[in-house]
Amino acid sequence: MKQQDVFRALADPTRRAILKRLQGGALSAGDIGAAFDITPASLSHHFAVLKQADLVRTERRGQYIVYSLNSTVMEDLARMVLDLFPPGGARGGKR
Amino acid sequence: MKQQDVFRALADPTRRAILKRLQGGALSAGDIGAAFDITPASLSHHFAVLKQADLVRTERRGQYIVYSLNSTVMEDLARMVLDLFPPGGARGGKR
DNA sequence: GAAATATTTAGATGATTGGCTAAATGTCTG
DNA sequence: CAGACATTTAGCCAATCATCTAAATATTTC
Predict the structure, then answer these.
(1) Which of A47, A74, B17, B87 sits at 20 to 30 Å (Cα–Cα) from A2?
(2) Residues on chain A touching B24 (C-beta within 8 angstroms)
């Protein structure tokens, strides 16, 4: 898993908002976009970034493409965060 | 709390490496920089970003400035992540 | 199969970013 | 105080990024 892709994907507020929007369940690209004031093309760009980070999954359903949260990365993300901020405080290192 | 600052700060690999380096305990700017192939000026820029995100704390000690991890943000960061990926699985898979 | 709808791709543009060099600031020591 | 050392600030530049418009692709419907 490419840690860099995940952190990069989360760095943009629009993308984080997309993820939040998906918490209510899977949505088509258009339905997600309805909440944002950006063009479908820009939206699509954000989807691509989220997908590359494996944060969302896609499934074509007829003429729609449906996006859903990939909750399994939650675990990976938690690991990444813990990796940066070890529990029990930073002091001590390998003692 | 400025969520955006935190995610932005974590988006850069050098900054994440700095955080990791600080896990062993507080270090002076110079000591941290020794591990990276960038100028002190660039390093200082990264420190500023990390500080703005409240991920590190500084303390002047003589002519050195000592950086240390601010582990308390760990909690905030965990909350941010959980906020994006609600535990119990985002209802949303496919249908 | 052509029109309509949904989404992505291509290409362009302005803003942000990470890096550099040079200069400024802060602190210790002789 | 002067000179050395540590770090930051100030400008500058190239690369990346978020966004746009226009065009392409995919799918349904008539």
Answers:
(1) B87
(2) 90, 93
